[in-house]
Write a structure and sequence with these properties.
With about 70 residues, the protein is mainly α. About 80% of the residues lie in helices and about 0% in strands. It is built from one helix and no strands. It has one helix at about 1-55.
Amino acid sequence: MVHVLGDAEAKAVALKTQMDKSENHCEDLESTAEKLNLQKKVGTRRHKWSSGLLHNAKPSSNFSIVKS
């Protein structure tokens, strides 16, 4: 009986260790996914901003051209 309890306790410890590792992996994946989403948003905004500059050849109406 004692042997069976020892085996069960060892198995419980091993499962707890696996669970902790799995939780850490999940947290890492969530963090990575969040970073990728933020980078995607920044990249999209940067692309839209630079595209507007590249495709808008004429000066903006907010700026005046100064001739000397």
